[in-house]
Design a protein that fits this description.
Helices cover 33% and strands 20% of the residues. With 300 residues, it is of the alpha+beta class. It has one domain.
Length: 300
């Protein structure tokens, strides 16, 4: 009887033992699980990398936009305070054209007053001074980019050379291109509906009435297009420099009872004559000939 019972139970015992031995994972199942885990890891890493790259790109675009906005505001303030100190060659706007695309290297130079582009700490910020803006290439420790040269207009030595005796200040190394176009002087006379911009300016003793400035900032990625910023800036003294009779008419009006004489951009007297602290004309506004060594714009 016992032997019969043992023989009847033994097959079930052996079956359970065999089932327990076969409860583990096979090699194929392990490989499939590892493949799925690797695929999930790649998907998570790709998503994280895409989000990080998009965040860095957005930050670079915002940073470049902030740089271009700051430069445009400085240029607007500096050009609106431009004036022509009487008569004299190369005392208006001097322009050097060098391309019209994102690699343009235009150079502009003019006379102005005020702290725009030079800072309030500059010793000549509130007196007439010349300023030149351009794009320069990196050289040694100099980062290159959008650069400014400025120097006092009067009281300079005969041997003064702005290329040698002034310091080039980099305002933004992120600018890779600068293009400037002037409003055609004939535009105001013809009053055409379509604005005519020109890319040359030979009237170096005058100012245009408006300029179109374009800055190109370096792109976030090397294979992307540069970030473009464009602005049109009106020059209050432009019309007066092209037609001095306007200043004479305004002065005659002031003599007949007008309490406030015509001023150049809010800082000078009629006809581009800047006034000193006690109402006396400064040297730069008396129509004196330009000092010896008056600079011509040269790329760095």
């Amino acid at each position: 009887m016992s032997a019969t019972i043992f023989r009847s139970i033994s097959p079930f015992s052996r079956l359970r033992a065999g089932a327990f031995c076969r409860s583990g994972f096979t090699l194929v199942e392990i490989l499939i699980a590892l493949s799925l885990l690797g695929l999930l890891t790649v998907m998570l890493f790709t998503s994280f990398h895409s989000v990080t790259r998009a965040w860095e790109t957005g930050r670079s675009v915002i940073d470049a936009s902030g740089h271009s906005d700051y430069l445009m505001e400085q240029l607007s303030a500096a050009l609106r305070s431009a004036y022509t100190p009487g008569t004299g060659e190369k005392y208006g706007l001097i322009f050097l054209d060098d391309g019209d695309d994102e690699r343009a290297r235009d150079v502009i130079e003019w006379s102005k007053v005020g702290p725009a582009l030079v800072g309030e700490d500059a010793e000549f910020a509130e007196v007439p001074h010349r300023i030149r803006v351009s794009i320069t290439e990196p050289e040694g420790d100099f980062p290159g980019g959008f650069t400014v040269r400025a120097w006092r207009q009067d009281l300079q030595l005969d041997a003064f050379d702005p290329e040698e005796d002034t310091t080039e200040l980099c305002l933004s190394p992120k600018v890779i291109g600068f293009n400037c176009r002037m409003l055609d002087p004939e535009q105001s006379r013809t009053a055409d509906d379509e604005i005519n911009w020109i890319d040359e300016w030979t009237k170096t003793n005058m100012l245009p009435t408006a300029l179109e400035l374009t800055l190109w900032m370096e792109p976030p990625e090397a294979d992307e297009a540069p970030i473009e910023s464009r602005r049109i800036i009106e020059i209050p003294m432009g019309a007066l420099s092209q037609n001095p009779s306007l200043g004479a008419s305004s002065n005659e009006t002031s003599k007949r009872g007008t309490s406030t004489p015509v001023s150049g951009g809010g800082t000078g007297g009629g006809g581009g004559r800047l006034l000193g602290g006690r109402g006396e004309p400064m040297r730069g506004g008396q129509g004196m000939p330009p000092p010896a060594g008056a600079p011509a714009p040269m790329p760095r």
